[in-house]
Each structure stands twice: as C-alpha cells, then as structure tokens.
UniProtKB/TrEMBL annotation:
It is an enzyme of class 2 (transferase). Its EC number is 2.7.11.1. It comes from Trifolium subterraneum. One of its GO terms (molecular function) is protein serine/threonine kinase activity. GO terms for cellular component: plasma membrane. SUPFAM superfamilies: Concanavalin A-like lectins/glucanases, Protein kinase-like (PK-like). It is a single-pass type I membrane protein. Gene3D superfamilies: 2.60.120.200, Phosphorylase Kinase, domain 1, Transferase(Phosphotransferase) domain 1. Its main location: membrane. This is non-specific serine/threonine protein kinase. Keywords: ATP-binding, Cell membrane, Glycoprotein, Kinase, Lectin, Membrane, Nucleotide-binding, Receptor, Serine/threonine-protein kinase, Signal, Transferase, Transmembrane, Transmembrane helix. In the C-terminal section; belongs to the protein kinase superfamily. Ser/Thr protein kinase family. InterPro entries: ConA-like_dom_sf, Kinase-like_dom_sf, L-type_Lectin-RKs, Lectin_legB_Mn/Ca_BS, Legume_lectin_dom, Prot_kinase_dom, Ser-Thr/Tyr_kinase_cat_dom. It is found in: Cell membrane; Membrane.
C-alpha cells in the first residue's frame, strides 16, 4: 500500500485559473486501485498513512477537518467503503475523501465535457495564503499505474482580496468579556447546514436558525447577512459587550464564530418564540394552546420584566458607560 504526491514546486496566490490534464490509469489487478486526484493544497507534503482509500489527499485524523486544507478533483477507481462513490467516479472534495458532488465514469460513451459541474467554490474561503497545485494518488492491495500524460495550468499571480473583517478574531479574543468561540463546522452540523427547516426568522442583521449542539443543548444562531448594516465594529461590540451581560430577562449571548468570512452569533434558545405571537394570536399552534390573547395581568407582568431589563442595561450593568442602541425583540422563555 502506497501513496504519493507530485506538486509544482512554486506556490501561487489564489486567483482565477484554468487547468487541463490528460491521465492514463492502467489497472494492475482486478479491480485496480485506488485512484488519482488533482489537488490544490496549502502544504505539498504527503500526509502520513494516506494510502488506500485516502488517495494521498487526507488521512484518518485530518479527514473532514480544516487541518487538511485541500481541495481535490478525485478520479477514484474502486469503491473502498459504503460512504465512497461507485467504482470509477470523478468527484469534487474539500478537506475530505467524501465528495461534494460526483459522477460515474463507467460506461460513459458521450462527451465528458459536462460530465461533472462543480458547485460555486470561492477558494479564498479555504486558503488564506499561497497554495500548491499538483496530483496525489494511492494503491492498496489493489494496484494501478497512474500516469499524468500532459498538464497545462494557467493562473494569474495576484494577491488575495483583503478580508474586510481582518483582525476581528484577535481583537475579540483579547477581550476578557467575550463568550466562547465556536467552530463553523460545529454550527453547520448543529443547524443542518443552515437548513430552511431550522430557520426561526429573520431580523435586521440576517436570518436566525435553531441548532442542537453535540451535548444536545439547543441554541439560536444569528447568521449576519453579507448585505447587513452590521459591520466589523458592531459585531465586535455585540460579542464583547452583550456577551458580558447577565440578567434573567435578557437572552444570553453564549458564543460567536468568525470563519470563512461568516459572522455568527450564538444565543440561548427560547422555545416559546416571540412574545408578539402570544399578544396578537398570530400562530395557529398557539391558538391550540391558548383560547385568547394574554390577559392584562400577564401583560402587566411582561411590561414590568421588560422595564427591569432596560433599567439593567442603562443603570445596572458593570459597563455603564456603554450606550445601547439596539433593536429590541421580545421573546418568551
């Protein structure tokens, strides 16, 4: 069992490029194995223990993690696991041996020009500096000869566009009042990839999704829209200021995330939703639970709770000099 990488020895900065290559794959056993891949990688070094099903792309410890730092177009010649695609398929992989999209190469008689179309990929979201391009491949108990007969690569050596939110992580982590930092992969898994089924609503800064963490804790994740009026300073202010507030009538900010140009705020989840639905009976589900809108005694109690929270924000919290100018949304626990 072996694996190898062959990369161009000069790195290039992420920029538009096009590449064309001709491969010759000759099985030495029946079936052949395991495959070859065109790779774009932060590190040209071959990962340890990356033979067999790993195709020299990743190994068991880096598979599915940002540590892998690799994008690959794989030509996989043998199905080596139940998660793997069929024998003889081409796929697009990001930091993983599992393909985002794939298509079978078996029994292909027509032109392969449009056999596989990748989803839009912004490589600068995965690589923040220079990268290497080349090929990787592997064998197992099944073997084949992988030959790159020809390869042409044309790219423009330009500097990656400066991140509009550059330095945000360092500034937040230097604050003693900042809550926990979450990983994007963790939040993607918790929200089902920001699935519409988990969407709770949308505010002035972007949509909010329900999520369930690995410890079964329910959260609400606010995903700041690219077109939002909330910028770098507002985001940092919310993390470092709102994150330090503690009051029974305020929703607690439990974490934040900035990764791949995604700004995310994580709040505790309020299972009963927005108060306006109770006040105005706008939800059919609530109509089954309540025969009428909230009575005035309950409304007075709600008003008192809101007033207590506002008084805390203006007079009671430790950072009294902070002026709060935020949209106020009433929710129920």
């Amino acid at each position: 069992m072996q694996s190898r990488r062959a990369c161009y020895n000069v790195p290039f900065k992420i920029a538009p490029f096009n590449t064309t290559f001709v491969l010759n794959i000759s099985p030495q056993t029946s079936p052949g194995g395991e495959g070859i891949a065109f790779i774009i990688a932060l590190d040209p070094t071959l990962p340890k223990n990356s033979s067999g099903q790993w195709l020299g792309i990743v190994n068991a410890s880096t598979n599915g993690t940002s540590e892998a730092a690799i994008v690959a177009v794989e030509f996989d010649t043998r199905q080596s696991s139940t998660e793997d695609g069929p024998d003889n398929h081409v796929g697009i992989n990001i930091n993983s041996i599992s393909s985002l999209v794939q298509s079978s190469l078996s029994n292909t008689k027509d032109s392969m020009e449009t056999l596989l179309v990748s989803p839009p990929l912004n490589l600068s979201s995965y690589f923040k500096q220079e990268v290497y391009v080349g090929f990787s491949g592997s064998t197992s108990n099944y073997t084949e000869l992988n030959c790159v007969r020809a390869w042409e690569f044309n790219g423009v050596d330009i500097v990656i566009e400066e991140d509009a939110y550059g330095g945000i992580e360092d500034q937040i982590q230097h604050s003693s009042m900042a809550p926990k930092k979450y990983q994007l992969t963790e939040l993607m898994k918790a929200t089902g990839g920001f699935s519409n089924q988990n969407k709770l609503g949308e505010g002035g800064f972007g949509p909010v999704y329900k999520g369930i963490l690995g410890n079964n804790k329910e959260i609400a994740v606010k995903r700041v829209s690219k077109n939002s009026r909330q910028g770098k300073q507002e985001f940092m202010a919310e993390v470092t200021t709102i994150g330090s507030l503690h009051h029974k009538n305020l929703v607690k900010l439990v974490g934040w995330c900035y990764e791949s140009k995604e700004l995310l705020l994580i709040y505790e989840f309020m299972p009963k939703g927005s108060l306006d639905k109770y006040l105005f009976n706008q939800s059919s589900e609530l109509e089954l639970q309540y025969s009428k809108v909230l009575d005035w005694k309950t409304r007075n109690s709600v008003i008192r709770d809101v007033a207590q929270a506002l008084d805390y924000l203006h007079n009671g919290c430790e950072r009294r000099r902070v002026q709060f100018k935020r949209e106020m949304k009433l929710i129920t626990r």
